[in-house]
Every structure is written in structure tokens, then in C-alpha cells.
């Protein structure tokens, strides 16, 4: 559903730095074409039907953006956390972006969506809006190159160690409740290879494996694998 | 060496769409900080010493931009042909770009370089310049994702076939005068794997191998591998 102008002003002022440079008409247009949505964990939000969904602002939860190959292989590019805006779901705004990303709700999520065609219209009129959209995309460019370097240049032990370390830091817990299959998907590797490496790590006393997932028991050793 | 204002105006008007939106001061500043350079084939232009070289406009020849790992592995991201501008060598202009690319002259090349710190100053004052820099980077973002998809999703036979096809189309010749080592570098694979696949292609009557390089003898079969 779309929302009241007062609420809209608050949200835009907080998350979109171009707000102060909009005309009243542009503000009204954006607000009347911004809507709130809730997506259950695992729901596809953008990409399978390849339309210009629009700019997606995450209020709560987490979205995952990934590339999908014809035979179903995935490469996770990045995640969007609360307060972050995804512009790659607005290909009609960013005409130079010629690839398709798929975006799923990784957790139960609440988001605001600004309609793509409306955002494109305002961006065409207002250089600040276009500038914001481009800058948002360039930031993700760096993330993607980082992923590429992880995949291409790091060996598997390092890649898994980096992933576990990041998860641990993100959740603040030594318990990582994910299957080997899920980890393999995130780091774009094969499940078998991940399982073998995790068993090797368990043998080294770095972690324990159980049905529930993984428990880190030696942070120092894990850290050493990364540096 | 830097060049005359008259020549500068011509070059900027032709290659930089922001020229009409600059003040006279900004025009003078850019022109007095733009210089011409010639680089012999194989010369490193940017990246090993990690400074903000600036915007590089290719006049003749060809530049190659790539990622370099600690142990010397390379991933070619894209090439710059005459008339194209590289902004990723101006990290002080594009603050959101946090990765380092290396840029070499792939052929004998003539380029114009706009000093990075000066370009950054003008971009800070003038939204059109910043916009140009961001848009230039976003275009390369799509190229990089394409490379990533080639590497991650395509199997080796397709990757080599795509490479040979592109080279053939680019040079207009059925002869590809490159070593297997060079091809392996371009497609980010191992030399042994490339040699094996080329021998397989030769066995299939797609190409002939000799000391000089590769000669395509069946374009139709090569094309079939790609589609």
C-alpha cells in the first residue's frame, strides 16, 4: 500500500539524500508511487520475470541479490540490510546496467518500493536523482569485484574461513545454523567440497559439526586462515 | 606534454559530454592539466603503484584493465579502444570504487590523461562531471558482471570458443597469433587446460595448431559451440 505524505517525507529525508533538491511536484510524484510490502523469508522479489521493479529500501529483514545461470547455479553478489537501498532492481533508471540480478528475501522483510518508471522519469528531470542512482550502483560494483576476487583468487579453505568469520561477526554468535549446501551456494562452490573442508577444519579443532550446523570453537585459528 | 586550448576544446567537446556545462575556469583548469602520452605495447600505465592516475582517453591503440592477485594471477575485466575513456584509474574521483585495477598498453598506444586530483576537484564543484564519471563506471560494471558470468557459468569449451570467435571478429582474420599461455590468461584458466581443449578442437576439425598460433578452419562448428 502507498503511504501518507508526512510519513513519506520522513522516510525520504532519512534515506534519500536527493530529497532537498526535488521540486514539490517531484516529491508528490515519488510519494504517491512508493508502497510498503512484506515478504516472507525465501520469497522472490525481483528478477525472475525481468521487469523494472524499482528502487527497494529495506526497513527490516535482509535481501539477497544474486546472479543465476541457466542451469540454476547462483553467485551471491551482496545483501541489503535495513536502511540500504537496492537500485539494481531498477534497470529502467540505470540504463547502463545490462545484466539481470535476482533478489530474494533472505529473512522475513519489510521494504518500501519506489516504482521504477516513476523513478526513471524523475531521474531524467533531476540530475541529483540520477547521480544518486549511479552512485548507489557504483558502490555495488566494488562489492561485486570483491566477490569475484574471493572466488577467483582465494583458495577454498580461505573462502570458507572468510564466510564463517563474517557470519560469526554478523550474528555475534559462535553457532552458524546453516547447511553445507547453503554455505556452498553462498561461496559458489560444490557441497561436497565444502563438507570436506569443514571436516578438515573440525579435525584441526577449529569448529564442531552437528546436525544443527556449525559451532566455532577456536576463533584464533579461524582468523589465522584468513590473514 | 600538455596541449593548446584550441586542441583541448576539440578533444573535450568530442569525448566528454559535460564540456558544455563547465565554467570557463573549469575548462581552463582541465585543459592545463591534460597531457598526451605514448606507451609502447606491454607498458604498465596504472595500478602497480596504486595512485590516482586520472581519466585516460585512448586516442590510438588499446588498453587492457585487469585484476591481479597476490600470486600473479590475472582476470581481464575489459579493454579500452580508441575514443573510450577509463575512469577506474581515477579512484580519487570515484570514491565508491574500492578495488584496484591494473592497466597496461596492450598495443602501442597514444592516450590523453586528465590529472586525477584536478578531475576530482572539478567533479566536486560540478554535478555534470561527477555524473559522467559515475555513469562511465556503471557501464564497466556491466562488463565485469559479464566476465564473471563467463568465468563462473560457462564451461571451458564455450569460454575458449567465445574468446576465439571474438578475436576472429575483432581482427577480421582466421589466424590467431597468440600462445596458449596468453589465451589462458585472458580467460582466467590454466595453460594446460587450454592446450588440451585446443587439441580437442583441432581433432574436431575446428582449427589447426602450429607454432605461429591458431588458424580457424571451420567457423560454423566454432559458432555452434557458442550458441
Task: Please tell me about this protein's structure.
2 copies of one chain form a homodimer. With 227 residues, chain A is an alpha+beta fold. Helix content of chain A is 44%, strand content 23%. In chain A, helix 5 (156-171) packs across helix 8 (219-226) and helix 6 packs across helix 7 (191-203). Chain A binds chain B through residues 67, 69-71, 73, 75, 94, 96-99, 127-128, 130-131, 134-135, 137-142, 144-146, 148-149, 151-153, 188, and chain B through 67, 69-71, 73, 75, 94, 96-99, 127-128, 130-131, 134-135, 137-142, 144-146, 148-149, 151-153, 188.
Q: Which labels suit this protein?
A:
homodimer, 227 residues, Jelly Rolls, Arc Repressor Mutant, subunit A, 2 domains, 4-stranded antiparallel β-sheet, 8 helices
Q: How are helices and strands ordered from N to C of chain A?
A: HHEEEEEEEEHHHEHHEEH
Total beta-strand segments of chain A? 11
Structural class of chain A: alpha+beta
Strand order of the largest sheet of chain A: 1-8-3-6
- Percent helix of chain A: 40-55%
The level 1 CATH classification of the largest domain in chain A is Mainly Beta
Average pLDDT reading of chain A: 89
CATH topology term of the largest domain in chain A: Jelly Rolls
| Count of discrete alpha- or pi-helical segments spanning 4 or more residues of chain A | 8
In whole angstroms, the N-to-C terminal distance of chain A is 48 Å
**Quick one: which chains have the greatest interface?**
A-B, 32 and 32 residues
Amino acid at each position: 500500500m502507498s503511504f501518507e505524505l508526512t510519513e513519506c517525507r520522513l522516510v525520504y529525508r532519512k534515506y534519500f539524500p536527493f530529497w532537498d533538491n526535488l521540486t514539490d511536484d517531484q516529491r508528490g510524484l515519488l510519494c504517491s508511487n512508493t508502497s510498503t510490502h512484506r515478504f516472507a523469508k525465501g520469497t522472490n522479489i525481483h528478477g525472475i520475470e525481468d521487469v523494472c521493479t524499482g528502487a527497494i529500501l529495506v526497513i527490516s529483514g535482509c535481501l539477497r541479490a544474486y546472479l543465476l545461470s541457466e542451469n540454476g547455479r547462483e553467485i551471491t553478489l551482496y545483501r541489503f540490510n535495513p536502511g540500504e537501498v537496492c537500485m539494481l532492481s531498477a534497470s529502467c533508471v540505470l540504463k547502463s546496467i545490462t545484466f539481470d540480478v535476482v533478489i530474494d528475501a533472505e529473512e522475513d522483510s519489510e521494504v518500501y518500493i519506489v516504482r521504477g518508471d516513476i523513478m526513471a522519469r524523475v531521474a531524467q528531470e533531476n540530475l541529483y536523482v540520477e547521480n544518486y542512482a549511479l552512485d548507489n550502483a557504483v558502490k555495488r560494483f566494488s562489492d561485486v569485484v570483491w566477490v569475484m576476487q574471493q572466488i577467483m583468487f582465494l583458495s577454498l579453505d580461505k573462502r570458507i574461513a572468510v564466510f564463517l568469520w563474517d557470519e560469526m561477526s554478523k550474528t555475534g554468535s559462535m553457532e552458524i545454523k546453516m547447511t553445507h549446501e547453503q554455505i556452498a551456494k553462498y561461496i559458489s562452490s560444490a557441497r561436497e567440497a565444502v563438507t570436506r573442508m569443514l571436516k578438515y577444519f573440525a579435525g584441526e579443532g577449529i569448529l564442531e559439526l552437528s546436525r544443527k550446523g556449525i559451532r566455532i570453537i577456536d576463533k584464533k585459528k579461524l582468523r589465522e586462515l584468513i590473514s
